[in-house]
Specification:
heterodimer; A: 403 residues; two-stranded antiparallel sheet; 20% strand; globular; B: 3 helices; 0% strand
């Protein structure tokens, strides 16, 4: 089997318009959480979100594209362009059919759907825009990336709620490793700020009124975010031959299903996924220096995830560094795994663990070695990035520092 | 009355369903903070009575 390198990274989220801005804000512990601006929140019990502010589609897309792309697809294409640009790849006709695209999204073109259905239900328009289906469909991000970059290889979308983009990256990693493709663009994007969806989140009673404080005793829930991130994956030998920058090696992917409850997490399912990622990478838990936690900031997730980490790192759970960057860029649902994969890759590459901000008080139920409030320098060979979803579907990626 | 939701086998998902039904039935909005203390049948009664009294007094 081939070793697989990450040769391109692209991000757009509340913390930055590209990987450089994202990383700078991440290690400075800056928050991307503001009062929600894209819609009127007066009917909501929460008003804070991690939005991408001042995005002008005209800066990125021609007229036809602006017409066709929902915001979540715009994030997908913007991140893919950055990633492929950093990889320095010229997509020749010969290469085009050997590149795969795997994207993740939990809710697809929510805001397009909300806007069109509002007219139908509320204003009696009795017709919806003919591009509603192509804007809303979950695979729009993958399709638009292929069209934008001229990629004709296998392309698909994975939708597993908050684990979507970790499953997508894991799937693409296996496709490159097993020679199904010679390169892949993989990640995810999400634009969940529509009133209908926010009301649905409100009803789940897991949204914080103020700040996301993962693993802190006074944590009060998650803060929703939006954005997208993409990785370029290719055989490590090919990357070395091209002389391109290798950001990290992707070495393992593990997934599991809790088979327990549609919303309540278990420790055993996430632990099984972490074990599977370690086994896939052929390493023991002692090799891991950093875990980018799912760390949503809900009472339940953080307690259960801490137990899972203790189970996987029985002798070293007091040593392995853990942080949740969701405290800064919010919970971006189907984009979360991809954004956090970039955070994990850059943490290994730069030898710096980004912090969990807004932390005030240790919780005995979350007994882990948390990097709180300020970043921490550390030499780490391997890192894990966790994503766990409603529905009990867990996905964990393992990365290795290059060089 | 003091039997907890846990003892009745009512899990977190059942709980938010109950809260949703209460909000619908009485046409009220129960904030998360108040909802957190509703963990038993008695909790429902006490919180709801208090809430409806407050509403009557125009404090909500």
């Amino acid at each position: 089997m081939r070793r697989v390198a990450v040769t391109g990274i692209g991000v757009i989220c509340a913390l930055g318009r590209n990987a450089e801005e994202f990383w700078e804000n991440l290690i400075l512990g800056r928050s991307g959480v503001r009062d929600i601006q894209s819609l009127d929140t007066s009917k909501l019990r929460f008003h804070r979100g991690a939005e991408v502010l001042d995005l002008d589609p005209a800066e990125h897309f021609d007229g036809t594209q602006q017409f066709c792309l929902d915001r979540f697809s715009q994030f997908a294409v913007i991140a893919a362009r950055e990633a492929i640009g950093k990889a320095g790849v010229t997509i020749t006709p010969g290469l085009a059919s050997r590149i795969g695209v795997v994207t993740g999204s939990s809710v697809g073109g929510q805001s397009s759907q909300d806007a069109e259905f509002r007219g139908l239900y509320l204003h009696g328009t009795n017709r919806v825009h003919p591009l509603t289906i192509p804007r809303v469909m979950m695979n729009a991000g993958a399709s638009q990336i292929c069209m934008d970059l001229g990629i004709t290889g296998p392309a698909m979308t994975v939708s597993t709620a908050c684990s979507s983009s970790n499953h997508a990256i894991g799937q693409a990693f296996w496709m490159v490793r097993s020679k199904q493709v010679d390169m892949a663009i993989a990640g995810g994007s999400e634009a969940p700020f529509s009133l209908g969806l926010l009301k649905a989140w409100e009803a789940m009673r897991v949204i914080s009124q103020e700040k996301c404080r993962p693993f802190s005793k006074d944590r009060s829930g998650l803060i929703l975010g939006e954005g997208g991130a993409m990785l370029v994956l290719e055989p490590r030998e090919q990357a070395l031959a091209r002389g391109t920058t290798i950001y990290a090696e992707i070495t393992g992917f593990g997934a599991s299903a809790d088979a327990h409850h549609i919303t309540q997490p278990t420790a055993s399912g996430p632990a099984q996924a972490m074990h599977a990622a370690l086994a896939d990478a052929g390493i023991s838990c002692d090799a891991i220096g950093y875990v980018n936690a799912h760390g949503t900031g809900t009472i339940s997730n953080d307690m259960v995830e801490s137990r899972a980490i203790q189970q996987v790192f029985p002798a070293s759970s007091d040593r392995v560094l853990v942080s949740s960057t969701k405290s800064m860029h919010g919970h971006t649902l189907g984009a979360a795994g991809a954004i956090e994969a970039v955070a994990t890759i850059l943490a290994l590459r730069n030898g710096i663990v980004p912090p969990t901000i807004n932390f005030t008080e240790p919780d005995p139920e979350c007994d882990i070695n948390l990097v709180a409030n300020e970043c921490q320098a550390a030499v780490m060979e391997y890192g894990l990035s966790n994503s766990f979803a409603f529905g009990g579907l867990n996905a964990v990626l393992a990365f290795r520092r290059e060089g | 009355m003091d039997t907890t939701f846990d003892e009745l086998g009512i899990d977190s998902l059942d709980r938010i369903n109950i809260l949703f039904e209460l909000e619908n039935e009485f046409d009220i909005g129960i904030p998360d903070e108040r909802a957190r203390s509703i963990n038993s049948v008695n909790g429902i009664v006490v919180q709801l009575a208090d809430y409806l009294q407050q509403e009557q007094d125009g404090r909500v």
